[in-house]
Design goal:
Layout (H helix, E strand, L loop, with lengths): L14 H14 L51 E2 L5 E2 L13 E2 L34 H11 L3 H19 L17 H21 L3 H13 L20 H17 L6 H24 L14 H17 L7 H15 L17 H20 L15 H8 L22 H8 L3 H8 L7 H6 L4 E2 L10 E3 L6 E5 L8 E6 L17 E5 L2 E4 L36 E3 L11 E6 L18 E6 L9 E8 L4 E10 L3 E7 L2 E4 L5 E6 L2 E8 L7 E4 L23 E7 L2 E11 L27
Antiparallel strand pairs: 1-2, 3-4, 5-6, 6-7, 7-8, 8-9, 10-15, 11-12, 12-13, 13-14, 14-21, 15-20, 16-17, 17-18, 18-21, 19-20
Helix pairs in contact: 3-4, 4-5, 4-6, 6-7, 6-8, 7-8, 7-9, 8-9, 8-10, 10-12, 12-13
Bound molecules: 2-acetamido-2-deoxy-beta-D-glucopyranose (NAG) (9 copies).
One 2-acetamido-2-deoxy-beta-D-glucopyranose binds next to loops.
Organism: Calocera viscosa (strain TUFC12733)
GO molecular function: lyase activity
Protein name: Heparinase II/III-like C-terminal domain-containing protein
């Protein structure tokens, strides 16, 4: 999944002096940057590369003269990376100097030249005559060193990519490690490892002209085509594993990049060998998928999620790479299928509000493939061939990504997907440029996963400003497919408060969703207090069988309603045919230009959902809201229950409950959260439960084992049938706040909530 893990420690001491020097230099050199770097003096002392000087693509010292920042050029905004992989921004002390997001080549220090290939009437099969064709044409390679010299982000990413390429080159050939079985998770990880290596090496080759990168790539490609007799690499002729078509598509994309980016470096024999591997192991299966109705592995042609994007993208890149060289006509034939199919399916994955149809993590796979395919079409044919406009709300999926990003991890409901390897969020840069949404590009450039070859070409150094400037703290995603809301106390201070809650339909999520209407996450003080259990075992029996009510998928704890942060009625699963409705209110608070933001005391937001259909007609309203200037959270359930209920929340915290049973004290990562049951109905009290299936649950499929959830406690409230208003107040114990700084909200029915109902 996305979370990079706590691999780097928070380091706040990098900012100050460096930023001051940057501003001074910028002014001194008369660069007239819209730099707006914070000249904070609140923190001091340069770190000695503690956050790795750009080798991670996000932190970096941001200081001129450092490894990652060309001298005299503005540093990066983010000064370090926190334990969750998020950028840490210096704190402003005075008037902010961050400007509004913009992409303005006219006033930029440096930007890309325009593409000399501007066909009058672009055609899918008329490609540019020079190489490379895919993603990065030669005019961009020619310009790149000049851009790197004037842009700290590009400079840092370039260094990181070289570092990664060097590490990969020193490693062994990729092993054909099968995950589960070929027809289960197959060799998708293997394919993505080959792809990330190949694109890094191809980048390093083109930037250095050092042919040792070509030689190392060749060894890998001979191996991954099954032609290295010393290593087993799959079934001959089907080495790329068409039964799990994603694998085949990712291998094809890897070979396409190698073929195209190293075109001139290959001998004729090598180039021909690569072409035949692309044809025989990749594209020929694509033709079968599109033309043979009896073929069982082409089901992805009619679904809207990541499978359609990845499969069409890999086939398209393979076809574009060899078009003209291919004597069989297969490449042109493939293009006649993939582009229109991706527009009808892949491009439709974001719903009308931008939410990705699967989950927040699958967004990465889907948007990366969409971006690779679209970018390849643009550079090779001179047109996006209609990809960007195929879904009028595709643009909004960038906002989805920003709001689903919490202060710790994502609001990572549902399945999280396999390892990412070659996948990242750099599509945000391409979308930012095309849709004129500079915020997307600015957001992504500070992220840990930005250092990757595609990003070098999708990023436009003419972008400037602060992505958080004038950006609303809250957003309501209102499509009934996935109704949900996101609320926070700041965009630039991830030590604050973040909540997100979902309702929406439970089906049509490509069997990656959970039965989780009403599910929520809560972050405060850099801890996730209410969290998700994530994926189960993808290779478990019938895990992906269906989204039907009686699907075996819903017998697994992590997928069932009991494994979510919501309420259980009669220990039953929610109704898969539910169509909950939502309501949302926000003070509309937006952060200003400064990284320092004080929440106004009347700033608030709420999201309520009518979950009556989710519970088969039992009247049930759930609401969550910010209180007290976004320092506290109220979660309320108004239910008239005909059978017993259990309020449930999963946490990694240590839980201790007072004798009255109305206050639970949660400890996590050295922080404390007080959870209070206010206006408690008679008999209502907190308890803890184990995160395991109930003995009365329908049996698991034969041979199945449920995933354990070590370290997780269920905070619960168990009650018999009855009419209740359960009001749970979350009081994070913020440093510097005393008990009198917390409020106790009035009791208001969820249906009567307004922006001022809890003042
Ligand atoms: C590239 O290298 C950086 C710095 O060592 C590391 O954090 C990152 O995970 C590497 N990226 C990939 C895709 O391996
Ligand atoms: C890119 O990074 C490599 C490795 O650090 C370095 O040798 C090269 O000079 C950099 N390229 C440019 C144009 O700065
Ligand atoms: C390599 O893959 C084979 C399966 O093809 C597996 O048996 C073996 O354990 C793997 N080796 C390593 C080092 O992962
Ligand atoms: C690599 O070769 C190209 C084409 O000859 C040239 O333009 C470029 O400057 C060379 N790059 C390096 C780093 O030597
Ligand atoms: C691998 O071998 C097959 C069969 O001889 C050949 O068609 C293909 O071009 C080879 N590919 C590579 C990369 O060596
Ligand atoms: C894309 O979305 C962004 C963010 O909402 C917005 O600023 C921009 O105007 C949109 N662009 C188009 C073309 O819709
Ligand atoms: C517990 O922590 C792990 C590791 O950070 C995380 O993946 C998981 O979502 C957390 N579980 C909960 C219930 O918060
Ligand atoms: C949501 O589910 C309801 C009930 O199953 C269905 O009628 C409706 O069409 C679904 N909405 C969408 C957008 O899929
Ligand atoms: C709702 O009805 C479905 C279908 O009968 C059933 O499987 C499910 O357990 C019920 N859930 C609740 C919460 O009543």
């Amino acid at each position: 999944m996305a979370k990079p893990g706590p691999h780097r420690t928070r380091n706040l001491i990098v900012a100050g002096t460096a930023a001051v020097i940057i501003v001074a230099l910028a002014l001194g050199l008369g660069l007239g940057l819209g730099l707006k770097h914070n000249n904070s003096s609140s923190s001091a002392a340069a770190s000695s590369g503690g956050s790795s000087g750009g080798s991670d693509g996000s932190g970096g010292s941001g200081a001129p003269g450092s490894q990652s920042s060309p001298s005299g050029v503005p540093g990066r905004f983010a000064v370090a990376t926190d334990t969750w992989g998020h950028p840490i921004y210096p704190t402003a002390t005075g008037t902010s100097q961050y400007s509004a997001p913009t992409i303005d080549p006219a006033s930029a220090i440096v930007t890309w030249p325009s593409d000399p290939f501007q066909p009058q009437s672009p055609s899918l099969t008329q490609v540019r005559t020079d190489r490379p064709r895919l993603i990065a044409p030669s005019y961009k390679w020619d310009a790149l060193p000049g851009l790197i010299a004037k842009d700290s982000y590009l400079a840092g990413w370039n260094a990181t990519i070289f570092g990664n390429a060097t590490v990969y080159a020193a490693g062994p050939l990729t092993n054909y490690s099968i995950d589960g079985g070929l027809g289960e998770s197959g060799v998708l990880d293997v394919a993505r490892q080959v792809k990330v290596k190949v694109k890094s090496w191809a980048y390093a080759y083109r930037m250095s002209n050092d042919s040792s990168w070509v030689d190392r790539t060749w060894d890998e490609l001979v191996n991954a085509a099954g032609n290295n007799s010393a290593n087993y690499f799959g079934v001959e002729g089907d080495n790329w594993n068409d039964i799990h078509f994603l694998d085949l598509a990712e291998f094809t994309a890897a070979y396409a990049i190698a073929y195209d980016w190293m075109y001139d470096a290959w001998s004729d024999d090598q180039r021909t060998a690569l072409m035949w591997s692309i044809l025989n192991l990749g594209l020929s299966y694509g033709v079968t998928a599109y033309t043979d109705a009896s073929y069982g592995n082409g089901w992805w042609r009619s679904v809207n999620g990541n499978w359609n994007c990845v499969c069409n993208s890999g086939l398209t890149m393979g076809a574009l790479a060899i078009l003209g060289d291919d004597p069989t006509g297969t490449a042109a034939q493939i293009l006649s299928y993939t582009v229109s199919n991706a527009q009808a399916n892949c491009a439709q994955a974001p719903s009308s509000d931008g939410t990705w149809s699967e989950t927040a993590n699958y967004w990465y796979f889907g948007t990366m493939a969409f971006a690779e395919m679209t970018s390849s079409l643009m550079t090779a044919t001179g047109s996006d061939q209609g990809m960007f406009d195929a879904n009028p709300t595709f643009n909004l999926t960038g906002l989805y990504h920003m709001y689903v990003t919490g202060m710790t991890s994502l609001f990572n409901y549902g399945d999280c997907g396999p390892n990412k390897y070659s996948t990242n969020a750099n599509g945000m840069m391409l979308f930012g440029e095309h849709y004129n949404a500079p915020r997307y590009m600015l957001f992504q450039r500070d992220q840990f996963d930005a250092a990757e070859p595609w990003g070098m070409f999708w990023y436009d150094p003419a972008v400037s400003g602060a992505w958080w400037e004038d950006l609303a703290l809250d957003h309501y995603f209102d499509d009934e497919k996935n109704t949900w809301a996101s609320m926070r106390s700041s965009w630039t201070d991830n030590t604050g408060l973040y909540i997100a809650m979902k309702a929406g339909n439970l089906t049509d999520h490509q069997t990656h969703g959970d039965l989780d209407s009403g599910d929520f996450v809560l972050d405060a003080m850099e801890q996730r207090w209410a969290g998700e259990l994530g994926s189960g075992d993808y290779d478990a029996p019938y895990y992906f069988s269906s989204e039907a009510q009686n699907s075996a998928r819903w017998t697994y704890y992590r997928k069932a309603s009991e494994g979510q942060n919501t309420l259980l009625l009669n220990e039953d699963n929610q109704n898969v045919e539910a169509s909950p409705t939502g309501n949302f209110g926000s003070s509309g608070t937006a952060q200003g230009a400064s990284t320092e933001f004080t929440v106004p005391s009347d700033s608030t937001a709420f999201f309520t959902a009518d979950l009556t259909t989710t519970y088969n007609g039992t009247s049930f309203q759930r609401g969550i809201r910010m209180l007290n200037g976004r320092k506290q959270v109220l979660l309320q359930d108004d239910i008239n229950a005909p059978s017993p209920i259990i309020w449930r929340m999963h946490t990694n915290a240590t839980v201790s409950i007072d004798t009255a049973g109305t206050t639970a004290t949660l400890s996590l990562g050295g922080q404390t959260m007080s959870v209070q049951l206010i206006n408690a109905p008679s008999g209502a009290a907190f308890s803890t439960m184990q995160p395991v299936r109930f003995p009365t649950d329908p049996p698991l499929p034969a041979g199945a084992v449920d995933q354990p959830n070590p370290g997780v406690t269920v905070l619960a409230i168990q009650l018999g049938a009855g009419q209740y208003s359960l009001q749970v107040l979350f009081n994070p114990q913020w440093p510097g706040l005393s008990s009198s700084d917390y409020v106790t909200p009035p009791s208001v029915a969820v249906t009567a909530w307004t922006l001022t109902s809890h003042d």
